[in-house]
Amino acid sequence: MDVNIIQINGNWKSGYVLDKQVESSTFNGYNDFGHPVFDTVRTDIGEAIYQLKYKKDFTQIVPLADAFVDNLKKQFADVGFIVPMPPTKYRKAQPLIKLAKKVGEKMKVPVFNNILSKNPVEQQIKNIKLKEDKIKALANAFAIKKSITNEGQWDVLIIDDLYDSGASLEAAAQILATYSKVKNIHVGAFSRTGKI
User: Fold this and answer.
1) What are phi and psi of 78, to 5 degrees?
2) What are the angstrom distances between the C-alpha of 139 and each of 9, 181, 188?
3) What's the DSSP call for residue 144?
4) pLDDT tens digits for 105-161?
5) 39 strand-pairing partners
């Protein structure tokens, strides 16, 4: 899988995305129901994430995890455990959790998918324009369940499938930074939407 590593900045020590989601998107008019139709060309990573997340193609997990580990393992060499971003939408099988577990298996670090949970957010975050306003709206969106019983502190890697403004990741990092088991926070995402 081709990648184009993008560094992302936020309230974390280091952050990287494998590639943008979309190469190009051309408006082709409207369908019979009046909905806009686009001819969208995705990157290799973007297409694999799309197939996994929206088409339930779980065969994408191994190649995506391989691409992540092959290209970002050095950047995250100090990570002691992985936390996937909590899902916004309930699915019987959560693609991101399965993906994070496969990355953890390949990096030989534990994955805790129950440390970070998401509380209901009253307003639609996608309708808020400014990143600062999104972070404020998300301030109470996350909660920590203190699941680690070992003594010590470790660097944590938060994994997300899609990176847009970074507001959700910043809110998650902010709450994770209060957990006594966390030393440094790193962020890794598979694809980036929006402008780069």
Assistant:
1) -90, 0
2) 19, 21, 21
3) E
4) 999 999 999 899 887 665 566 667 677 777 677 767 888 999 898 999 999 999 999
5) 26
CA distance 50 to 55: 7
Q: How far apart are CA 173 and CA 85, in angstroms?
A: 10
DSSP conformation letters of 75-141 = TTTTEEEEEEPPPSS--SS-HHHHHHHHHHHHHT--B-SSSEEE---SS-GGG---HHHHHHHTTTS
| Neighbour-count burial of 30, counting CB atoms closer than 10 A to its CB (0-12 exposed, 13-18 middle, 19+ buried) | exposed
Report yes or no: 19 and 44 within 8 Å, Cβ to Cβ: yes
Burial of 165 (0-12, 13-18, 19+ CB in 10 A): buried
Both structure tokens of 78: 């100090």
DSSP 16-67: EEEEESEEEEEEEEE-TTS-EEEEEEE-HHHHHHHHHHHH--GGGHHHHHHH
Question: How many residues would you count in the chain?
Answer: 196
Alpha-carbon gap, residue 18 to 44, rounded angstroms: 10
